[in-house]
């Protein structure tokens, strides 16, 4: 099931189960995704759509994390709520690939990565290749580490 359909299904379940937090978060995510779609157009394929939705979820999580840092008081009830929200949002993200799964994909462009002028260009080559393969769930830190390893 596509991530977009999964979110809508979870929203229906949250509404039936009267789970206010899940319902509100899912409505927020779906609304943000719809806004991005309106601005940039719908995605042509499911991988790009999943990547866009994951980006929206991560942006919301980053906003929550920043708010937590600004509040700074662990006893503040808003901090507890934001931590719960981020925990729920993290469950919505597709699982990330392990380095064992990424290694063979990056091996396809290993020569290009090795011949890049610097690590930034090499990482760009790797990320572009992953995007063309439809890989939306790779941790950038893991890709950077594998690029460094490939470059020696």
Number of domain units: 2
Radius of gyration: 18 Å
How would a textbook summarize the main sheet? Answer: none
Share of β-strand residues: under 5%
Number of helices: 8
Low-confidence stretches: none
| Total strands | 0
Distance between the amino and carboxyl termini: 40 Å
Mean pLDDT: 89
Structure class: mainly alpha
- What global shape is seen? globular
The helicity comes to: over 70%
Order of helices and strands: HHHHHHHH
SSE order and pairing:
Blueprint: H1 3-16, H2 20-40, H3 46-71, H4 77-92, H5 99-107, H6 110-115, H7 119-132, H8 140-151
Outline the structure in words.
- This protein folds into 2 domains: 3-92; 99-151.
- The model has no long low-confidence stretch (mean pLDDT 89).
- The termini are far apart.
- The radius of gyration is 18 Å and the shape is globular.
- Helix 3 (46-71) runs antiparallel to helix 4 (77-92) and helix 7 crosses helix 8.
- It is mainly alpha-helical and 152 residues long.
- The relative contact order is 0.11.
- It has helices at 3-16, 20-40, 46-71, 77-92, 99-107, 110-115, 119-132, 140-151.
- It contains 8 helices and no strands.
In short:
The protein has 152 residues and is an all-alpha fold. It has 8 helices and no strands.
Q: What distinguishing features does this structure have?
A:
152 residues, mainly alpha
